[in-house]
């Protein structure tokens, strides 16, 4: 579930740029993250060395993926257990937007990682690992 204001907020703040195949194209083909905003939106709790590495590795993301609507069938939906890990210091996908996602399509259980930014594998890898092990044992 995409929060309705996320894209507008990020594009209008210069955090994300939409890339088009042709100047007059109506549909973007990818989205690029402004590297000047990496620290404040993706890695606000991550070590500086991660931010430096990310700047060299980050590439445009295919745009249609962000707009794609997942089609589920009633006979198969719910066959796989679902859990949600909320990243509580996430400045890209804000915690209140994560709450909307969880409320709109409740998982079996939601967990919170209080020290995590958008990238918990960088900002709190040990806590993320412990939480994933815990979820695997449920």
3D shape = globular
In which range does the helix fraction lie?
A: 25-40%
Order of helices and strands: HEEHHEHEHEHH
Poorly predicted sequence stretches spanning 5 or more consecutive residues:
none
Biggest sheet layout: 3 strands, antiparallel
| Beta-strand percentage range | 5-15%
Distance between the termini: 25 Å
From the alpha carbons, calculate the radius of gyration and give it in angstroms: 17 Å
Determine the number of helices (DSSP H or I, runs of at least 4 residues).
Answer: 7
What is the arithmetic mean of pLDDT?
89
Q: Give the strand order of the largest sheet, numbering strands 1, 2, ... along the chain.
A: 1-2-3
Number of strands: 5
Structural class by helix and strand composition: alpha+beta
Outline of this structure?
With 138 residues, this protein is α+β, with helices and mostly antiparallel strands. It has helices spanning 6-12, 38-42, 48-57, 63-67, 95-104, 120-123, 125-136, and strands spanning 16-19, 30-33, 61-62, 83-87, 109-113. It has a 3-stranded antiparallel β-sheet. Strands 4-5 form a two-stranded parallel ribbon.
